[in-house]
Amino acid sequence: MHLFLRHHGIGGIGIIRMSGKDTFTILEKIFKPKNKQEISKIKGYTIKYGNIIENGEIIDEVLVSYFKAPKSYTTENMCEINSHGGNIIVRKILDICLKNGADLAKPGEFTQRAFFNGRIDLLQAESVIDVIHAKSERETKTGMKQLKGVLSKQIAQIKQEILDVMVHIEVAIDYPEYDVDEVTNQQISDMLENVEEKLEKLEKSFDNGKMIKEGIKTVIIGKPNAGKSSLLNAILKEERAIVTQYEGTTRDTIEELVTINGIPLKLIDTAGIRQAKDEVEKIGIAKTKEIAQEADLIIAIFDSTKELTKEDIEILELIKSRKSIILLNKIDLESTLQADDKRLKEVSNHIIKISALNYVGIEELYKEITKLFQLNEINIDNEIIITNIRHKNLITKAIENVKSAKKAIEEKMPIDIVAISIKDTLEDLGNITGEIIDENIINEIFAKFCLGK
User: Is 319 helix (H, G, I), strand (E, B) or coil?
Assistant: First the structure.
């Protein structure tokens, strides 16, 4: 089968990719290189210059990259036609490929073939989409480490530890007349302790992994005209939000993405909290409170030129027992509200004076966020970090099966009962790398890919 892809949109270059056993047969029908050479004599990783031809007419001047099996992305014969990037040209070459026997690729089909052909495992395949959709440098690095197989190797090592002991377990089950239980039980216990420790370390890494991948969901709340929109603009260094002297300008949420120390910060500017004057504002305020409950971090901003009001106290109640930073805004004016105010200190230890309009205190805010989430301690170079919820859930399940096996040993259960939980652990780990996996899950994973990968 021949697979074909084109990217939508206009660019300097359009890339069309084909993969499959008849790739070069199709290519020979449509591509005339300037220097004619038999396919068998063309080396892989070679680029040829020539023209795409249809009925003797030159359609486009192109460069074609040759990749010969098994040394290609899919391990099959592959080529990439680099054409001019106009929609008309690319679509025309697409049609010519289809007329000569190619089929359109489904989303993720090239990577799926790489997986089915054994070049990469499922974990590595999933990291491809992580790299494509990465929103920060740290996320890109984490995705690239997993693409290189760092996590796969760790999973394989853990599985090997289990398999080494499973040999003794199978002997004990198949030859019960030999007295190996005492030795076997000790080996199993040692293995289970070691495996549990390694799996729990991976499981715990997901907290940082989730933060690297999804970012820190940060909600900015405050009364109308406290400076929420000015703060958002100061952080983004652009006028993204409307700033006026009139209260209640922001009726809905405004979302933006910035990075701090390589970690995405999902900023959400919300409607000001006060007694709503109309139904639209009422809905906006209700939405503010709902989003605040789901946030990883709440930045509560107060007008330092005014005393705390009933609405301010309501905001303080909202952030109580939550990860929060209090900002006292408008310090360029005469301040009435001070950082040592008992009502503020009872709610948060993180209180910063700022002038959002004049960009004062913004760097201090970044430092406080870095400290609060220990961003400087996330070491993606020397640690293996789980970023995928599917992997995390399977690791959690594997840990539960390890605990079940340990409990069975403590309760002096028969060795074959212990073996059931250990085999379930192996299955959980096999599901991560795709050695054991349901076809529906595979289809669901690759359906998330873009065309061309």
Answer: helix
- Within 262-317, strands assigned E span 263-269, 297-303
pLDDT single digits (tens) 366-425: 999 999 888 887 877 778 889 999 999 999 999 999 999 999 988 888 888 888 999 999
Q: How far is it, in rounded angstroms, from Cα 301 to Cα 218?
A: 13
Q: Average pLDDT, stretch 322-332?
A: 92
Phi and psi torsions of 352, nearest 5°: -130, 140
Distance CA 315, CA 337 (A): 15
Question: By mean pLDDT, which of 251-255, 384-388, 426-430 is the weakest?
Answer: 251-255
Q: Are 79 and 18 in contact (CB under 8 A)?
A: yes
Rounded CA separation 219/266 (Å)? 8
Strand partners, 6: 16
Q: Dmax over Cα atoms in the chain, in whole Å?
A: 89
Spatial separation of the C-alpha atoms in residues 111 and 443, rounded to whole Å: 12
Q: What residues form DSSP beta bridges with 3?
A: 19, 103
Which of 114, 294, 116 has its CA nearest to residue 217?
294
Terminal CA-CA length for the chain: 16
Structure tokens at 164: 């080494």
